[in-house]
């Protein structure tokens, strides 16, 4: 299956728009990562712990999007976008949503 952030796929014609699909994941930030981020906030620099969690959450959301596209028999998901939202009373959870449109394709002759 082809994934793209664009609204078309080079060399292919979209023959059917199946529907909008989404993949969501929610991940927690543990105490040690939170402590490390607090130190980075004080000293400056990047928070590797938070970055790793964001990457894992994004990949999990993409995997969910892939599964949903497969279930619909899509050839591609186009127009993919991401949304990152803090959750929980202390914003200690991160929700990542990947959305796009599942489509059928035909190669352009």
Automatic annotation (TrEMBL):
SUPFAM superfamilies assigned to the protein according to its UniProt record, in alphabetical order: YbjQ-like
One family name in Pfam for this protein: YbjQ_1
InterPro entries for the chain: UPF0145_dom_sf, UPF0145_YbjQ-like
Similarity remark: Belongs to the UPF0145 family.
HAMAP family in UniProt: UPF0145
Name the record gives this protein: UPF0145 protein CFL01nite_09150
């Amino acid at each position: 299956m082809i994934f793209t952030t664009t609204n078309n796929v080079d060399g292919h014609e979209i023959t059917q728009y199946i529907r909008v699909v989404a993949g969501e994941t929610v991940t927690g930030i543990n105490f040690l990562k939170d402590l490390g981020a607090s130190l980075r906030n004080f000293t400056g620099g990047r928070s590797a712990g938070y970055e790793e969690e964001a990457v894992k959450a994004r990949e999990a959301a993409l995997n969910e999007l892939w599964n949903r596209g497969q279930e619909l028999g899509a050839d591609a998901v186009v127009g993919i976008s991401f949304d990152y939202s803090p959750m929980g009373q202390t914003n200690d959870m991160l929700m990542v949503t990947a959305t796009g449109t599942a489509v059928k394709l035909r190669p352009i002759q």
